[in-house]
Q: What sequence folds into this?
């Protein structure tokens, strides 16, 4: 298939308003119906790689349609050899923008439930940054605003429709704990970003990839699982931390088929427990709100935060310290999920 980058008459259509996308794909994500339009088969392949094979989560109420147009520009004359520049954020006049450079940016109109993602051909060589910093930025922001969800930096696992939110500072072990939860029978909802409906405390997420550091493999006893992780592509975060990017859709565990109702939250700590048989300790109700707001500074500014916080305080928040093995922490989570019935 030949993709045209130009406009037949640039003077007649200087803003490319009549360059109609040739292809469309639809994905049910985060409780919303997303339609992706593009004249570039390569960009739609990026979308399909990111979101194909995921459970189609639905939330109570109508599922709105969100539209994201993706536009491919020619390769830049002087590409950034060390990787794309970081995204700079800006907003105004009802628009939200994330800009890498003049050829790579996203513009969102939340009130219209639409977004435009523009990327140069260079970004096809940077699929991690293209997915997470442009495409997923559009998906997450539109879903958050259009569905009234609270966006949390954290992970979530559960069982039988019930979930526990995993919070904590970067490096505390959230992703490693989520991995071991997956390997020991818990339903996997999300590893890095969780979206919660504040009235119901139903949590949803995108369970496409798991990002773990190489040292997480030391606690994986199964050689087949170790091989799966070691064969996964390596990505480098903006922080410089290198991680494996393991595709969760390869059947290594069970992905949550529906949104999970939160029974509470756990702050994952990197500190070892004083008693290896008592890893969980409840956080005083009077301290929970402060801990949550410090840990989730962006989410705490969103419209549904107060309701979310009130509900979570009532259901309880714990601190989870490290035990002898990661499976001990998973057992503590399983006991918490069972005991909250």
A:
């Amino acid at each position: 298939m030949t993709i045209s980058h130009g406009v037949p008459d640039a003077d007649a259509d200087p803003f490319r308003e009549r360059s109609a996308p040739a292809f469309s794909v639809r994905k049910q994500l985060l409780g919303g119906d997303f339609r992706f339009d593009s004249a570039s088969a390569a960009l739609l392949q990026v979308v399909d790689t990111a979101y194909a094979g995921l459970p189609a989560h639905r939330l109570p109420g109508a599922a709105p349609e969100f539209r994201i147009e993706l536009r491919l520009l020619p390769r830049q004359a002087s590409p950034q050899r060390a990787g794309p520049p970081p995204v700079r954020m800006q907003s105004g006049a009802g628009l939200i923008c994330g800009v890498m450079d003049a050829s790579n940016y996203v513009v969102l109109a939340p009130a219209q439930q639409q977004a435009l993602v523009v990327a140069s051909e260079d970004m096809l060589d940077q699929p991690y940054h293209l997915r997470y910093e442009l495409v997923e930025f559009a998906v997450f922001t539109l879903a958050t605003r259009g569905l009234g969800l609270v966006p949390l930096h954290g992970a979530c696992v559960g069982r039988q429709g019930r979930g526990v939110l995993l919070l904590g500072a970067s490096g505390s072990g959230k992703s490693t704990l989520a991995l071991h939860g997956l390997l020991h029978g818990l339903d996997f909802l999300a590893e890095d970003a969780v979206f919660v409906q504040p009235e119901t405390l139903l949590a949803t997420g995108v369970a496409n990839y798991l990002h773990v550091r190489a040292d997480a493999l030391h606690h994986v006893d199964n050689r087949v699982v170790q091989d799966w992780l070691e064969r996964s592509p390596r990505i480098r975060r903006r922080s410089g931390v290198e991680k494996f990017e393991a595709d969760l859709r390869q059947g290594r565990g069970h992905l949550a088929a529906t949104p999970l109702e939160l029974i509470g939250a756990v702050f994952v700590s990197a500190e070892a427990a004083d008693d290896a048989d008592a890893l969980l300790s409840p956080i005083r109700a009077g301290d929970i709100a402060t801990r949550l707001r410090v840990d989730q500074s962006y989410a705490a500014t969103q419209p549904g935060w107060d309701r979310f916080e009130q509900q979570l305080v009532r259901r309880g928040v714990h601190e989870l310290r490290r035990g002898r093995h990661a499976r001990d922490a998973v057992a503590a989570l399983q006991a918490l999920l069972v005991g909250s019935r």
